[in-house]
Structures are given as C-alpha cells and as structure tokens.
C-alpha cells in the first residue's frame, strides 16, 4: 500500500498479532485502486495482496476503482461491505476486472483457503498491517453494531454503494412499447414537461439499505387536532412506533442503527445514510416523553453522538448539516427536554456536560431563541467590507 503511516510496534506484539489476527487476502487488485478498512484508506501499490493483523470483530472494507492515467485517473464511486472476522481467519477475494468489484466466492473453497493459510509467511511482505492507530476511533463509532445487525441492515446484494443502482420502472425494449411515451424530438416548454419525458426509475432490487421505516405521520390514526399538535411537538409516539416495529426486544439496538447509518455516510459516502441518521436523530432528540421513560437509551445516545460529532471537522456543518440549521435546532430541543423536571438526574447532568462540550468545540449557542427574527450582527474578517 502507498502512503501508509503505521504506529511503531514491539516486534513480539507484532508477531502475536500476525499469528492471532485475521488476514484478508485480496488478489489482482489493480494498482492505484483506493482501498480502505474502517477509518483508514490507501492507494494500492503494485505488490499489494491484502491486509494482515486484523483484530477480531466487525470491520468495514471499501474500495474505489481508478481509471488509467491515459483516461484521466478518475476515481469511481465507493463500494463497501461490513465483514465480521474471527481470530486467525483467512478471507480470500479476487478482483473481478469486468465488474470492478471484489469476488469473495474463493473464500468458500476450503482447499484454496488452507493453501493460502499455509503460505502466509511467504505472503507477509505483500500484506499491509491493519492501521491500529485508528482502531480506538473505529470501535467508538461502531460499538453498538453487532454482526447480526450489520447483516440485517446491509443490502441483500452484500454491497453498500455510494451511488444507487437504478433501473427503469417499466422496461420498453421494443418500439411499440414506447408509443405512449412523450416525444423527445421537440423542445420542452416547461420544467414539468422535461421531467415527464424522463423515464421513471427505481432502485435495483436487493441494492437498497434496509433501514427501519420512519413514520411519515407523527400521530396515531384517528387523532384529534389536539393530539396531532401534541404529537408534532413531542415525537415520542413516532419514536415508540419505530422501536415497537423494529427493536422491540432490544430498544438500544436503535443506537446501533444510528451508528450504521453514520458510518455508511461518513465512510461509505452514501447520502441515504446521512438522511436516515438525520431522521433518527430528530426522533430521538424531540421525544420528551420517551426521554423520561428510557434513561439508558438516552445515556447511550449522548455517548454515540459524542464520538460521532468529535470525528467531523467543524466546517463540515457549514456545508451540509447546518442546512436549515438542522443539527443546532435538533440538539437545542434535546437539551431543552433533557433539563426538564421529569428527567433522571444522571441523564440531566450528562446532557449538561455534553452541551458544554459542543458549545466549546463548535461555538454553538444552544440558549439563543431560534425563532427570534431579530437581525444578527456578524463580525466580518479583517479587510472585508460590507
């Protein structure tokens, strides 16, 4: 691998990790391919054949094919998958040039895997060490995600792709099938007409992330106007519905789903992951009644958010999260509910410390009235005139 910065390690520790850790053998991966595991990414060199000393547990492997220099060296969309490894595991995959993807079917060939296992010493110079300098970060971002949960949330295809794989809703292979379609040989008179001419697309079956469905209505069927208003101010009904339908036996698994969505977005580059993370976060932070009843869920939420927000540079929020002031307003509601009279004392204190941490890290003011429309005085950088 190129540009790899590994931590200094005692030779005896390294030897033990080599013998006890898992090995990911990746054959025929083209030079220049971007490949990463967990929170570290490299460009593959000409001698690369895999990753060694992988700690047992859940990991996220991801890669992006790269065009040849004659074609501009453009980097393709990122593809990833969660892998659960055990001590001394040997996982074998070969690069499929046509599909530009890793084929793990060779791992089912016990004879071939055993042959690789017997020759690990010879392969060692071509195996990059697992990046232990990011292990603590990775564990803090995924400690609530079990192997079972990852398998349940991953697409049935086994691949998490940055770009959705879409196909036409209706295949029109023959001319007669397209007779009722709008003609494309005349100029569009409006945006609506242009959109109507585009084929209706849908995501290819088996490629979608299998997140919990979030309610479109925040209130129960047959709700009165007063109930609708109450459920719109306190989203506990909608949150409890998600827990009942998806995590009834283990409500804290919702935090694992929150982590899974975050990793898909921040590492896998999947925007759908961000949208689901945002939706779950809104439900959790704006559910006062549930906050009073489910102390452990919210103590866990603070820990999850502490690590997630600590890994994002402050200017990230300027471009994405702060659109419509989403995160600031959501967390403001959370801290307001968390300071209420019916909240557990330990949770209230933890929330106060978390609020102080975010205020210091991002200079966010959670005490300002977001509904106040009064002008805000902004100091311009030196030398800039208004």
UniProtKB/TrEMBL annotation:
Q: Which Gene3D superfamilies match?
A: 2.60.34.20, Aar2, C-terminal domain-like
User: AAR2 N-terminal domain: which residues?
Assistant: 20-155
GO BP: spliceosomal tri-snRNP complex assembly
Q: Which Pfam families match?
A: AAR2, AAR2_1st
Q: InterPro entries, per this entry? A: AAR2, AAR2_C, AAR2_C_sf, Aar2_N, AAR2_N_sf
CDD domains, per the entry: Aar2_C, Aar2_N
Q: Taxonomically, which superkingdom?
A: Eukaryota
Q: AAR2 C-terminal domain location, by residue?
A: 211-367
Xref: PANTHER family: A1 CISTRON SPLICING FACTOR AAR2-RELATED, PROTEIN AAR2 HOMOLOG
Q: Assembly and partners?
A: Interacts with PRPF8 (via RNase H homology domain). Component of a U5 snRNP complex that contains PRPF8.
Q: What is the designated name of this protein?
A: Protein AAR2 homolog
Native organism: Gouania willdenowi
Gene that specifies this protein: aar2
